[in-house]
Amino acid sequence: MSSPLRSLIAAGTKLWLDSIDPELVQRNRALGATGATSNPIIIADLIKTGRFDQDLLRLMRDGLKDEEVAWQLTDMLVRQAQKVFLPAWESTKGDDGYVSFELDPLLEDPAVNMPLGERTQKYIELGKKWSAGHTNRMIKVPATPAGLAALEDLAAANITLNVTLIFTPRQYQIARDNIWRGAQKRTSLTSFKSVYSIFVSRVDVYTEQHVPQLSSEAQGMVGIVNAKQIWQMNTKFWTDKNLPLKQEMIFASTGTKKPTDKPWKYVEAFAGTDIETNPPATNDLVEASGRSFTRQIDQLPPQPVLDEIAKLVDIQKLEDVLMAEGIKKFADPQKALLTLIVNKRKELAK
User: Taking Cα atoms as reference points, which of 281, 274, 291, 229 lies closest to residue 255?
Assistant: First the structure.
């Protein structure tokens, strides 16, 4: 009998893990996961376990500053996850098996107020640095003005990209078009791969707070509808390009935020194609559910619900609010990670 996660994969979904915890990577690989992603919250949570104290001590004794310690530990953990997923990368000839490495979130820190052009150049510089020498590493760049502006140069430099913090069709289109322009500057498109991470549950949190007039049929469905419509756009755009590798959507932020929602709400909604990057707890709950998943990606609510969403949800306002929140959620965890390392340095020096 197929497990729930195996049925999800059998339906056509690539299952990636929203963690690079070595233990969780191994466990989820055994369940069928073929990729993973990292961020500062994940790194901080791993440091808090104490399991990496010896690695931290080694880096600190090498004379590295706090920021360098953070990035070297991240690099080490991403490398370890890459080894686990490398067979998936090899067997699919580069179409799967990736681990995402997030570039410095402090580039978007409003307190730093770095000029746009300078931020863009920094994304390009860091993208080249952290991708060098890697096969199955994706470089994660946010869909901010500076991040979007960096994509063409990064794609032209043969870097595999994961554009994150996408909430709206507008962001997706700019990201896709910039990457495609860059890709066409390559000498070959054989290894060209890009993914676009559309955030789902945060959209439904937004509409609960800012569009309470939505009917019960529409409330809680906007994240799914929005992501599926962007998926349709992506599918249509790449259909005639005849590329060796798929340019895919990542359905991210798939853990439910509302206690009354079933934990597999978003997992089930996007079953059937592209990539789901699920939190470990969501995968555990899905696996324990006993459910069998079939393709749902093509199914949308009835037309009256779609019309209501289109009429009542101001998509630009949604983007503005969620990006402001997203940038804060982007930068603050990196600051917290650096503070944690400062405290660890004191603790380990005793």
Answer: 281
